[in-house]
Design brief:
about 210 residues, alpha/beta, Rossmann fold, 2 domains, nine-stranded mixed sheet, 3 helices, about 30% strand
């Protein structure tokens, strides 16, 4: 067996080859230098008609519920009926259930139609609680493509625990693409429609 010295031509070539293999192996294991996908947020609607009465009632908005596919920071796309996938080039800034809760609260604040609104942890002496269940929040390819948002809402008396009213809100907005900023813009527009309708409905009741 021949032992190669570090300073010999063959020894230097062997070391360089070994380093190349090591670096290549590390790149393969680490998935290369590709960074995280762009992060996107939702927008709370701001433009509401003037209320015909003074703000009344105090409301807490619980964190929304959803099935596992929607209860994450993944942006869901439906390539075909019965199929669910996630966009590889985009993600939400938080879990969708928390994001919907936060932007719904902001929508109520922007409308100025209730005396106070917040989360259950804010210790508001609430008169009502709003429960949200996200049924759909996705880019549907068979639909056009289009952004589809569907949220079930229930208003519950905070002291009685009784459901006072309930309604399902749905909006569909055409999407110019099924990925990236174009897909997110369509989802944001669909959510804004749902959130605005929800606020106007709820404030007529409370």
């Amino acid at each position: 067996m021949q032992v190669l010295g570090r300073n010999s031509p063959c020894g230097r070539a062997t070391i360089v080859a070994a380093l190349a293999l090591f670096v290549g192996g590390c790149a393969a294991l680490g998935g290369g230098s590709k960074g995280p996908p762009p992060t996107y947020d939702l927008t709370a609607p701001r433009d509401f008609p003037r209320a015909g009465r003074a703000p009344r009632g105090q409301l807490v908005v619980a964190e929304a519920t959803a099935l596992g596919a929607l209860d994450s920071d993944k942006i869901v796309v439906r390539p075909a009926a019965g199929e669910i996938a996630a966009l590889a080039d985009a993600q939400w800034s938080d879990r969708l259930t928390k994001l919907v809760q936060a932007r719904t609260i902001q929508a109520f604040e922007n409308a100025s139609r209730v005396r106070a609104v917040g989360r259950p942890s804010d210790r508001i002496a609430a008169d009502y609680q709003l429960l949200l269940d996200i049924r759909a929040f996705e880019i549907s390819v068979p639909a056009g493509p289009a952004a589809e948002v569907e949220i079930s809402a229930k208003i519950v008396g905070d002291r009685s625990g009784r459901i006072i009213a309930g309604r399902v809100f749905r909006a569909t907005v055409p999407a110019s693409a099924t990925q990236g900023s174009a897909a997110v813009a369509a989802l944001d527009a669909a959510f804004a429609k749902v959130a605005a309708d929800l606020v106007l409905w709820a404030t007529r009741i409370i």
